[in-house]
Amino acid sequence: MATTAQLPTQVSPPQFALSPALPHQVGGAEVWAFPVLPGVDGPLLGPGSDEASEALGIDLLAALEVARATGRAGEVTTVPVASLEASHEVSLVLLVGVGEGSVTDFRRAGAALARATKDRASVVTSLAAITPDEGLGAFVVGAMLGSFAFHWRSTGPKERPVARIVLADVSDDGADDELARALALGGAGWRSRALAMVPANLKTPAWLADQAVEVGEAAGLEVTIWDDERLRAEGFGGILAVGGGSVHPPRLIRMDYV
Prior knowledge:
- This protein has helices at 49-56, 60-67, 103-116, 135-146, 175-197, 205-219, 228-233, 237-243; strands at residues 15-18, 31-37, 44-45, 76-80, 92-97, 122-125, 164-167, 222-226, 252-256.
- The longest helix is centred in the C-terminal third of the chain and has 23 residues, at 175-197.
- By secondary structure, it is of the alpha/beta class.
- Helix 3 (103-116) runs parallel beside helix 4 and helix 4 (135-146) packs parallel to helix 5 (175-197).
- Strand 2 and strand 3 form a beta hairpin.
- It starts with 14 loop residues before the first strand and ends with a strand.
- Strands 1, 2, 3, 4, 5, 6 and 7 form a seven-stranded mixed β-sheet that branches.
- 32% of the residues are buried.
C-alpha cells in the first residue's frame, strides 16, 4: 500500500520585542542594524550608530562610503565585526537604507533586514525608532514576510529566519498596539503563503477543513464543516458533482464572526 506523503515541519516567523534602549545597550544580540537615510552630502546614519561605532571601534560612516551606499530603501551594507570586545556578542552590523522614509520604504527595509539575517539568533535594530505613523507596523510585516520560507526537505530547511528581532529605541505608548496589529497581519500573510505552497496531493478538502477549524478556534470564529454526507443530505448537488471527479470527497467550509 502506498505511503501517504507527510508535510515536513516548517519554519516559524521571527519573534519581536520592543525596547527603549539603543542597540549597544541590549545584551545578547548577534547583529546590530541601523537605518541609513539619503543626504545631500551623502547618506546619514540613524539612532544608536554613533554609540555603536564607538563601542566597536568601527567608523560606520566610512563603511557606507566604501560601499558607495545611497540610503535607498532596502539597500543593505554589511559590516563584519572581526574582533569582539568581551562586553559585546555582536558579530555583524547592518546598515539598512530607508529611502524617503515612507511606510512602503520601511516595509521594504524590514524585508531586506530579514533576508540579510537568516540563520542568525537575534538582531537589535533602531530602524523602527524613526518610522512615520504606521511605519513600525509596516516594518514588522515586511520583516515577517521577508523571512517566509517553505521547504520539502526531510533533513529540515536549508535556512531559517532570524529567531528574534528587537525594535530598539522605541518608547511610544502606542507601539505595543501597533506591534500587535502588525503581528496579526504578518501572521495572516505567513499562513496564507504557507497554505498556497502546500502541494495539492496533501492539500485535500479534508485537510483544508482541518486548517479552517484550527484557525477558527484560535481567532474565536464559529466554524461549520459540511462533509460529503451532509452535502448530499442538504442538497448541495453542484459541489458533489464537481468533487466527484476527485478521489478526495469535497468539503464546504463556513466561518462566522460572532
